[in-house]
Each structure stands twice: as C-alpha cells, then as structure tokens.
Amino acid sequence: MRQTRVPARAQQKDAGDQKRIARFTTTANKAKEAASMYRAVADDTHTEKQLRQLHRAEPRARAEVQQSQQTQAARIVQRSWR
Mind listing the pLDDT tens digit for each residue in 24-77? Predict the structure, then answer.
C-alpha cells in the first residue's frame, strides 16, 4: 500500500511543478512581449527626436545658405563696380 501512495504523491508533485512551470513560462512570455513593445516605443521616440532636431535645424541651414548666397551676390556686384 505504501508503494502506491509514494508514486501518487510524486505524480502530484510533478503535476504541480508542471503547472508552476507553465505559469512562469506564460509570465515570461508576457514580459518578453512587453519588453519588445517598449523597445519599439523607445526606438520610435528616438526616431521622432532626431526628426524634430532635423526640422529645427532645417530653417537655420536654409537661412545660412540664403545669407551665403546673398553675400556672394553682393561681392560679385562690388567687383563689377570696380
């Protein structure tokens, strides 16, 4: 009779272990998916930040180019007067 009780108890422990492993696996998979989503959000945020910096720099760069062109045009006009 003792031989039948020990394997049954071992089987219960194994079943409990399998359930715990299944729960931990589910939790780990959910955490993995969440981490992947948060990485994607962070990447999008970095991309957006870079685009904003480019958008801020663009008017300045255009103004510099325009000023440079005006300066060159003014030099050409001054040279032609000489």
Answer: 999 999 999 999 999 999 999 999 999 999 999 999 999 999 999 889 888 887
CB under 8 Å, gap of 24 or more: what pairs does 15-21 form?
Answer: none
- pTM for this model (two decimals): 0.56
Distance CA 49, CA 57 (A): 12
Tokens linked to 24: 């931990």
- Closest listed residue to residue 61, CA positions, set 50, 72, 53, 49: 53
Distance in angstroms (rounded) separating the CA atoms of residues 19 and 11 = 12
